[in-house]
Write a structure and sequence with these properties.
About 6% of the residues have low confidence. The protein has 8 helices and 7 strands. It is of the alpha+beta class and 238 residues long. It has a domain of 62 residues. A 7-stranded mixed sheet has the order 1-2-3-4-5-7-6, with helices on both faces. This is GNAT family N-acetyltransferase. One of its GO terms (molecular function) is acyltransferase activity.
Length: 238
């Protein structure tokens, strides 16, 4: 369809698939006082009173070149394991992180995953560590996986995503054992996660078709026990 196709434009408007400038934030003069940063956590029905933030959030994900589809919108709104964390300034979305809660698998299910008999949906990290790394206790831990993270283009390289990750970590301190992420391992992206205290625990065996990079899974321990495990998992990486 062409750029002015009415049906295409209508679909893009309905599902926030067309990147817009609605959330663009004016550059802040370094000589002026910066406004206070605000954080929000939104899930499910919370979005009903923040519909403007939903449009900005989804547009930001689209502009960040994620393979975003209308189904992702339903995922953000309806999946009870999904939370969206926002960093705002002047009530505008600057940075967004989509978090999925995973793990805490029953022992019997973990055993079946290790044996290749089961692949529970929505438990990427626990499943990978069990099935591919042979870590037999990986299923029992609770993971908050950062499945998407993006910052408005004009505000990048200012530490906003790192600030948002710190907020997520503080929110997760009583609700999980590990923060984690999985991505196509380009140099810049790996450097970002290393800078934020994440350690590698699994390297994929095949290159991603879209990026040409190997996938890398990294974790950041939240508890003292998790810190010891992360070191062991990193050292046994193969």
């Amino acid at each position: 369809m062409g750029g002015n196709d009415p049906l295409e434009n209508w679909i893009n408007d309905c599902f926030f698939l067309a990147a817009t400038d609605s959330h663009t934030i004016d550059s802040i003069d370094e000589n002026t006082t910066k406004p206070a940063t605000e954080f929000k956590r939104l899930t499910g029905e919370n979005w009903l009173t923040h519909s403007d933030k939903l449009a900005d959030t989804f547009n930001l994900l689209v502009s960040a070149h994620y393979q975003t589809s209308p189904d992702n919108l339903r995922w953000i709104l309806d999946d009870p394991s999904v939370s969206t964390y926002l960093l705002l300034d002047k009530d505008q979305v600057q940075s967004v992180a989509i978090i999925t809660e995973e793990g805490d698998l029953p022992a019997a299910l973990s055993q079946e995953v290790m044996q290749g008999k089961r692949r529970p949906r929505g438990h990427l990290v626990a499943q990978s560590l069990l099935a591919h790394e042979g870590i037999n206790n990986a299923g029992q831990y609770r993971y908050w996986r950062i499945s998407r993270i993006a910052t408005e283009q004009t505000q990048q390289n200012k530490g906003l995503a790192s600030q948002l990750l710190t907020y997520v970590e503080n929110s997760a301190s009583e609700g999980c054992d590990f923060l984690c992420t999985s991505f196509a391992a380009s140099y810049d992206v790996v450097s970002f996660w290393l800078k934020n205290g994440y350690v590698p625990v699994r390297l994929g065996t095949a290159k991603d078709k879209a990026s040409g990079c190997y996938s890398l899974m990294m974790v950041k321990p939240i508890t003292e026990q998790a810190s010891k495990l992360a070191i062991a998992w990193r050292d046994s990486l193969h």
